[in-house]
TrEMBL record:
The keyword Membrane applies. GO terms for cellular component: plasma membrane. This is DUF805 domain-containing protein. Keywords: Membrane, Transmembrane, Transmembrane helix. Signal peptide: none annotated. Pfam families: DUF805 (PF05656). It comes from Magnetospirillum aberrantis SpK. The chain crosses the membrane at residues 26-43, 49-69, 81-99.
């Protein structure tokens, strides 16, 4: 998934908490949020307005939570684990590790593999 594709998918699935999100989708969207926040903070500082970054943060709050929940689904964890975010330090570390790990190959209880990986073909399974 490309940077632009990830951003457009996350905004098109604005409040979709079902399904799965690949690592690239999650991390590209996170990169977009960080870069946009830096740019808007600089604009706020130069112009003295001071609200652009806040408005952007509020506007992207739901999409960022939604993609985080879908990322947890990709690792076969319920979205409720996102509440670990409210535990100081430890919760953020655990979530960072989970967001960085490879998702479940093939379908899981939350949907199909976002990368298109399916079941292992019978011919390859017989060789193992």
């Amino acid at each position: 998934m490309t940077f632009g594709n990830a951003v457009s998918v996350c905004f098109s699935k604005f409040a979709t908490f079902q399904g799965r999100a690949a690592r690239s989708e999650y991390w590209y969207f996170t990169l977009f949020l960080v870069l946009a926040n830096i740019v808007l903070t600089i604009i706020d500082a130069v112009t003295g307005i001071g609200v652009l970054a806040l408005i952007f943060a509020l506007a992207t709050l739901v999409p960022s939570i939604a993609v985080s929940v879908r990322r947890l689904h990709d690792t076969d964890r319920p979205g409720w684990w996102y509440l670990l975010f409210f535990l100081p330090v430890i919760g953020a570390i655990v979530l960072l590790i989970w967001f960085s790990t490879k998702g479940t190959t093939g379908p899981n209880r939350f949907g199909d593999d976002p990368l298109g990986g399916g079941e292992i073909p019978a011919a390859l399974e017989a060789q193992a």
